[in-house]
Amino acid sequence: MSALLQLHGRTLAELEGLMGEWGHPSFRAKQLFAWLHRGVTFEGMHTLPAGLRERLRVEAADRPVEVLEILRSALDGTVKLLYCLGDGHVIEGVLMRYHHGVTLCLSTQVGCAMNCAFCASTLEGKARDLTAAEMIGQVLCANTLEPVHNVVLMGSGEPLDNYDHTLRFLRLLREPDGLNIGLRHVSLSTCGLVPQMLRLADEGLPVTLSVSLHAPNDAIRRTMMPVARAYPMEELLDACRAYVGKTGRRVVFEYALMRGVNDAPEHAHELAGRLRGLQCHVNLIPLNTVAERGLRAAGAREVRAFQTHLEQLHISVSLRREMGSDIQGACGQLRRAFLSEKTREV
Fold it and tell me: Among 95, 203, 248, 309, which residue carries the largest CB count within 10 Å?
């Protein structure tokens, strides 16, 4: 049997083409598009003819993803979602409450191939890319719990390693008849795939680019991030300058503080020297412990000192609030725990 159609990832024009092939007028496509992005099942699409609803039920996927497990933090209300895909793979996402609204952190791949030393998402490697429909599906599932106002592509996977599906998702996300989330409310995190960053800068999408930097120089960065061997820091920063120049959007640098690795005052001074003159913000991150990795989080005193040094050197900086620490809030941890449990059952 052929795979079910993933209609949640199709544009309105593509749905119009499908409706034409099936012998239905084009206005049915607009109805279908709106129903799909409200998360309604085919059976509930009451404005569509019964015959069309039946064909959809037989030939298309009713839901791109299903919620497998929900964990709620007793500390801050953060919600961790474990999703099941149509082929049995599992991915995860996080719903976080901020003063500016509810933010969903979603995944773009099953696992990750980037092999960063501090991340749990990459421990099993990458199984496959997610489709735009599966990314939309994560938002739809989250919306059943709380309306999503902001989206960050910072879950499992490297969004720019899944470029075409990610761009399709972004364009669908902002559709007025769909989820209608403006792209100024979207952040995309990359480990630093320079060619794709330059390509993204030309797309005309006002997305905030977040770059996983985590080091003030190539020597340290290469010990943690294999991508740094392909794209040296100056090449990466040049791509960031190009992104700022073409989009007018400042770049956010993610910097996870690791004890004895990148948390010393001299590291802060070197980082400030590299970033000076670039329209950017540094987001300091308390490292989440990953049992399989040997890295440890910097102490509270070192974190405060690092932040103070950057502030004194006139670098825009903030410390990310830890959220969901009691529910395996870090990327990849819940999925890994689930896979380990399934392995034990076998």
Answer: 95
